[in-house]
């Protein structure tokens, strides 16, 4: 008997076979470690719920839990307020203006979190840029490092691209003629916005807010470097419970409470909107009916653009000081920190390790994404939703939870501080980012070309490599770029699984800025900034080349 077939005549059995590699990978390195963490949280002499009782009975722990929840909500809301006008302007313009606005967001998005974190340390430290500016204006000393305000500002700046992308992706698909029709019926601008435009933009609003909220819940780097131990968030507490207190069951219970908070927000949102798909921006047609009364939008866009880019640029002069100092601007100049970077096994070895891990992760993530996308495309609609959500699941779980889950598994399997361990962990994190553009490209693929190839005698393998993959190459390029950058920039999971034998560049940068005053980190940050610009410009040029291709 022939296997069941979908309307395209493609075998469901083939789809199941194609899904197996990705499903097995996620089941083994994402689902199973999470189950182990759940089981760890239920251990204890006082019974299954003793760890949860211990955590919730501590006033200090509960304060940290509530502080984390409030911080994530505040950062998400501020990002929405700041990003909404910027994304709206992006959806209204075209040509060079759109390229500039999108380029600013992409550069900020791809710039290493460690680069931006180091930049904020310099900006907010005592005698830093903000402190000296406040004193020059006649105010008292203003040291934002170690304050809740400083952590909030830095987190909002880092999270903004995660809000802008889903907003733009939704707004670019809204028909501007609806606004014109509303105004022609007598509605003023505010009425048109609240009654017409805002409801249509809600999918992007909810998607962006949830993504930023989930990421902020498990954010570790900024609270750890810019914040204060007295105002720590739950991610810092979990790290301390594992690495200092050595209490894995209590850390697991804290992680499960964090996961429950995340699911309480994600599941209701997913029931109405496609939250996970809002990670990357969607290209679309831009209508000509641009609002001419939007001069303030351009001013707002300039302010947001400066806020996205300027903090990172301060690391460039800091890479040339004559002495070991983070003073801005440097009092003397030297290139010896670049010489130290390339001559040091500690720094240059970390760079080579990061490149090796990122390249392998990119290849593995793209292969698994293509396999999953081909499978989902062949399966009935009821299966597509479930499997698509399964592939995207690592995106909606706070990173600190994935970190301790993988750490516990790798400890028992001997995969900590190994290249294989880093590649596996980074692929789990990068897979959702590479999957979305590849899945989108396959959804736009004309199945008649596949049928024509088969009618000419080509087998499935030849059709895949000769017809399908060349035509979806822009999606492959984008997915590969996302996977490479996610791996190259990963800090939290890498902190858990690194060791003296193997350490990636972000981990080396984190440990350096946390313990030393070493301008080598500024030299590394400057080179990462240049790499980011090369990647963004190069991918933009390749994308335009693909678009011009017949």
Automatic annotation (TrEMBL):
PROSITE patterns assigned: ABC_TM1
Segments forming domain ABC transmembrane type-1: 65-269, 351-539
Residues spanning the membrane: 12-32, 64-86, 98-122, 142-168, 205-226, 246-267, 295-320, 347-376, 396-415, 421-442, 463-486, 521-542
Chief location category: membrane
Matching InterPro entries: MetI-like (IPR000515), MetI-like_sf (IPR035906)
Membrane topology: Multi-pass membrane protein
SUPFAM superfamilies: MetI-like
Pfam families, per database record: BPD_transp_1
Keywords, sorted A to Z: Cell membrane, Membrane, Transmembrane, Transmembrane helix, Transport
Family: Belongs to the binding-protein-dependent transport system permease family. CysTW subfamily.
UniProt name for this protein: Putative spermidine/putrescine transport system permease protein
Organism name: Rhodopseudomonas pseudopalustris
